[in-house]
Automatic annotation (TrEMBL):
BP GO annotations: cardiolipin biosynthetic process
UniProt-recorded name of the protein: Cardiolipin synthase
This protein's UniProt keywords: Cell membrane, Lipid biosynthesis, Lipid metabolism, Membrane, Phospholipid biosynthesis, Phospholipid metabolism, Repeat, Transferase, Transmembrane, Transmembrane helix
A GO MF label: cardiolipin synthase activity
Native source organism of the sequence: Cupriavidus yeoncheonensis
Topology of this chain in the membrane: Multi-pass membrane protein
UniProt KW S-adenosyl-L-methionine keyword: no
Gene name of the encoded protein: clsA_1
Domain of life: Bacteria
GO CC aspect terms: plasma membrane
Length: 489
């Protein structure tokens, strides 16, 4: 059938399509060259511009989805209200608990910064028990849930439909049937297996089940009405009766969730006034999802001193407007005098974190980085390995743990500061995920964490600078290519 006259008069598409496409690509490149660097770190801007210049249309689409940390205004306003409530709670608590100076200048500087960027003040009178045996953590949680009389609150990134998930779910069901108020807040993406398997059963027993950061439609994300789907709630917190708390790296999932690569974790069991801060983080996250302000008497019971440790919560995430966990760690590394030991499964640092490690080594501080020899994300592993050369040049000692997938996330600074929680030492944890860590100012707790770290070192291979420099060119090239995407990880 012949074309209509007005179409037949147009030039052959083969003649104008190519130039038009080329023109559109250059329009994208030039526009993004102006737009991307605005309010972005130089390294992140370089990563995105490199992608856009090589693949303009694909880069534009990916940037629309992942390039900016879309955090809805409604959630920001809620978080501001939460922080005002925490300030009021802190004022009340300060009159009820013993006060006094922190052990040294490092602790004082760190605690002051955390209070300014994370809202929580250091609290005296806590007992912090470090637990590094997977099954013991599960057993202790079940025992404490079974002992709960008022409330059970669980916030998890991964909650799997496996034996461990079944064990914890059964304990929560038993508590609900005793009349205990139970709330389970689970990341909608990370815990999708557990949500699908257990939600109906838990809700039928009267348990409140709340998916955190549910994935919205693409149009809602692009319009800025929903958080990006890769902004996740990565926290792991359990609070029982407002008196016993757990915080650390361990999810509710079998240790052998990856065949041949068992997880090894570190969790802190806490009693004392600092549990109120864990509780506040849980209730704040629940409020962000549900606007639920319903608090029972068990949520914040009288806060009596229960031990020798000073502890302080450090929540972080895109809603805080700054990378506060990264800021605190960089500050503490700069203030370290003797020794820094960092344990993390994922290490993809930004320039300021690298510089802090560099300066620490030049000042004579002993810096150790403990990583897993095998991890569950090959691309990320190659990206972090690209940093080994420069770290070894600085004088950082890198240890690769052989025995398991070392998923634990903790830090010791000198002899006085320990940090344990869900925060990885990578750009994703610092900028995108909602994380939580407990900072402890107690020499005895630090000694216990150092003993755990020494066990890691005894079962690790130390990376030798000369051997690392001799790795094949193809390996080095692949690692450096992966590193180019560090801001996307």
């Amino acid at each position: 059938m012949p074309l209509p006259p007005f179409l037949s008069s147009l030039p052959d598409p083969a003649l104008w399509w190519g130039p038009l496409f080329t023109l559109s690509e250059w329009a994208i490149r030039l526009t993004m060259l102006v737009y991307v660097p605005q309010r972005r770190a130089p390294a992140a801007a370089r990563t995105w511009l490199l992608l856009v210049f090589f693949l303009p249309w694909l880069g534009l689409l990916l940037y629309a989805l992942f390039g900016r940390i879309y955090y809805p205004k409604s959630r920001s306003l809620k978080l501001a209200r939460i922080n005002r409530g925490i300030e009021q709670l802190r004022t009340r608590i300060s009159h009820e608990l013993p006060q006094g100076p922190l052990p040294d200048a490092l602790c004082q500087a760190g605690a002051g910064l955390i209070e300014r960027v994370g809202s929580f003040a250091p609290m005296r009178g806590n007992t912090v028990t470090l637990m590094d045996r997977y099954d013991e953590v599960v057993a202790a949680m079940v025992a404490d849930i079974d002992a709960a009389a008022q409330s059970v609150h669980i916030l998890m990134y991964i909650y799997a439909a496996d034996a461990t998930g079944r064990t914890i779910t059964d304990a929560v069901l038993r508590a609900a049937r005793r009349g205990v108020r139970c709330s389970v807040l689970l990341d909608a993406l990370g815990a999708r297996g557990g949500l699908k398997a257990y939600t109906d059963e838990l809700r039928h027993a009267g348990v409140q089940v709340v998916p955190a950061l549910p994935v919205q439609s693409l149009s809602a994300v692009l319009k800025g009405k929903s958080a990006r789907f890769d902004l996740r709630n990565h926290r792991k917190i359990v609070v029982l009766d407002g008196r016993v708390g757990y915080i650390g790296s361990q999810n509710i999932v079998d240790a052998e969730s990856m065949p041949g690569l068992p997880n090894e974790e570190l969790v802190a069991r806490v009693t004392g006034p600092a549990v109120s801060q864990l509780q506040a983080v849980f209730l704040a996250d629940r409020y962000l999802e549900t606007s639920d302000r319903d608090l029972g008497a068990a949520d914040f019971p009288p806060l009596a001193p229960d031990g020798p440790s000073i502890a302080q919560m450090l929540p972080s995430g895109p809603g805080y407007g700054t990378q506060n966990a990264q800021m605190v760690l960089v500050s503490m590394i700069h203030n370290a005098m003797r020794r820094v030991v960092i344990t993390t499964p994922y290490f993809v640092p930004d320039e300021s974190f690298l510089q802090a490690l560099h300066v620490a080594c030049y000042r004579g501080v002993e810096v150790h980085l403990v990583l897993s020899q095998r991890i569950d994300q090959r691309f990320t592993q190659s990206a972090q390995e690209a940093y080994f050369g420069v770290l070894l040049e600085f004088g950082v000692q890198i240890h690769l743990y052989r025995a398991a997938f070392l998923h634990a996330k903790h830090v010791t600074i000198d002899d006085t500061v320990a940090m344990v929680g869900s925060t990885n030492m990578d750009i994703r944890s610092f900028a995108l995920n909602a994380e939580a860590a407990l900072v402890i100012y107690d020499r005895e707790v630090v000694k216990k964490m150092v003993r755990i770290q020494q066990r890691y070192l005894a079962d690790s291979d130390t990376v030798v600078r000369e051997k690392w420099a001799a790795r094949p060119l193809r390996t080095r090239t692949w690692q450096n290519l992966c590193r180019l995407a560090d801001s996307l990880l």
